[in-house]
From TrEMBL:
Its EC number is 3.1.3.-. IMP-specific 5'-nucleotidase involved in IMP (inositol monophosphate) degradation. This is IMP-specific 5'-nucleotidase 1. Its cofactor is Mg(2+). GO terms for molecular function: 5'-nucleotidase activity; ATP binding; magnesium ion binding. PANTHER family: IMP-SPECIFIC 5'-NUCLEOTIDASE 1. One of its GO terms (biological process) is nicotinamide riboside biosynthetic process. Keywords: ATP-binding, Hydrolase, Magnesium, Metal-binding, Nucleotide metabolism, Nucleotide-binding. InterPro entries: HAD-like_sf (IPR036412), ISN1 (IPR009453). It holds the Pfam family ISN1.
């Protein structure tokens, strides 16, 4: 049992997305039946093209079927019976879908980019499906749009892990164009600081570009906020502040549920997290330092050290389990995550962060709000919880964020062209 538990759960579940794995399994069947690996030594060029056409049709049909299952799940959601949908039976971990997902169209788009159907040795992969889901989400947002709020994670999404958003980052002009179209922007990051200056140090490229922009109105510039510590500290763009950000008092934005989190409980949860982290440092002999903050506690490596992936995962899973099992962990939401070379436990999580941004901007709906991040595994990852608040896109590095924003822009332009041609008729 122990071995099976460790292999099936501890070592796997938290590193797999159940829905993506399930779709991957469905696409594996046509891959096995129609791929022609022997064509590489049998000179059957015609067959390869035919194979690609057949595989494309079969993959697209399957994606269309999954799309229908999601529509059925949404219909169940709308009457409060999401637990009874067929999709829920097939993939028990599926949550709320804020919009339909045109998966067939998205697959056709991604197949043209990635030649998925032409592959003879490599079956449709996790990344093929992840990117298809992102495209489907963008298509749906732009068809039912317009998008009103885009929130971005920081590390790995906007810039490389531990780096800062510098002036030459290609994401900057793309974010500015979104703002020009009236989209509100939130940087919803775990990085938790109480001073605006610290965020200026991390985000100066974007903040300076917004400040200097001639294309954005003063009102549009104020549509940029930074929500740090997952959901703990809110700052808004302010051209008159030396850090270009000003602190927004909690009374102006905290959700009612967040106001009920007692300081005493917060302290107790952080104490418990700190002792769990200390136990891990001792048991694995980690060269690490504890960092305790007002709304977070974490461990960072001693100077020049790197934690092994296994050490990071073990620490985060142990800490999360201990907190989940505690009484105070039932009263206060928390987020334990693996930050690449550190581990943090924050008070609250990104669902509260995104909900707070939606509320701050006047009550934006989840179906008009998109969170872009890199951490969507179910344990030890902090963007995952944003799925409770809005639509999401799962990227793997900052370049993918740039590509995603280009895709969104193209889809918006196509929609505009279609509307113009309809109006002209
Ligand atoms: P994110 O990817 O933007 O959510 O940022 C995560 C990273 O922020 C972590 O890996 C840490 O290196 C850093 N960080 C700095 N302060 C905090 C904190 O108070 N809580 C969690 N992470 C923090
Ligand atoms: Mg990140």
């Amino acid at each position: 049992m122990t071995t099976r538990y460790r292999v099936e759960y501890a070592l796997k579940t938290h590193r797999r997305d159940q829905f993506i794995e399930w779709v991957k399994g469905l696409l594996a069947v046509p891959f096995v039946l129609h791929s022609q690996p022997t064509a590489i030594f049998e000179d059957r060029r015609q067959t390869v093209a035919q194979m690609a056409a057949i595989a494309h049709r079969r993959y697209a049909e399957i994606m269309g079927d999954v799309e229908e299952l999601i529509n059925d799940h949404i219909a169940h959601q709308n009457v409060g019976k999401q637990d009874r949908s067929k999709l829920k039976l097939l993939v028990p971990s599926v949550g709320t879908f804020f919009t339909p997902l045109p998966l067939k169209d998205a697959f056709i788009f991604q197949d043209a980019q990635r030649s998925i159907s032409s592959r003879r040795f490599v079956a449709p992969s996790f990344n093929d499906i992840r990117l298809t889901l992102n495209t489907a989400q963008l298509m749906s947002l732009s068809r039912n749009g317009p998008l009103q709020l885009a929130t971005f994670d920081g590390d790995v999404t906007l810039y490389d892990d531990g780096e800062s958003l510098s002036a030459d980052n290609p994401v900057i002009p793309r974010i500015l164009r979104l703002m020009q179209r009236g989209v509100k922007i939130g940087i919803v990051t775990a990085a938790g600081y109480t001073e605006a200056g610290k965020y200026f140090d991390r985000l100066s490229g974007l903040l300076n570009a917004v400040n200097e922009s001639k294309d954005l109105s003063a009102e549009q510039k104020r549509n940029l906020v930074v929500l740090g510590g997952e959901d703990n500290y809110l700052f808004r763009f302010n051209a008159n502040d030396p850090a270009l950000l000003s602190w927004i008092p909690h009374e102006e934005w905290l959700m009612d549920e967040m106001k009920s989190w007692k300081e005493e409980d917060i302290g107790m949860l952080l104490d418990l997290a700190e002792s769990a982290l200390k136990d891990c440092i001792a048991s694995m002999n980690l060269k690490a330092q504890i960092l305790r903050k007002g709304r977070a506690v974490g461990i960072i490596p001693a100077q020049g050290q790197r934690f092994a992936r296994e050490q990071l995962e073990e620490t985060v899973l142990v800490t999360q389990k201990i907190l989940e099992m505690s009484e105070v962990g039932q009263r206060i939401p928390f987020c334990a995550f693996n930050g690449g070379n550190d581990i943090f436990v924050d008070i609250g999580d990104k669902s509260w962060g995104v909900l707070s941004c939606q509320r701050f901007f006047g009550g934006i709906e989840g179906s008009k709000s998109l969170h872009i991040g890199d951490q969507f595994l179910s344990a030890g990852a902090n963007d995952f919880k944003a799925r409770l608040a809005c639509t999401t896109a799962w990227i793997a590095n900052p370049l993918e964020t740039v590509q995603l924003l280009d895709e969104l822009e193209e889809l918006g332009e196509c929609r505009q062209l279609n509307e113009e041609s309809l109006n002209a008729q």
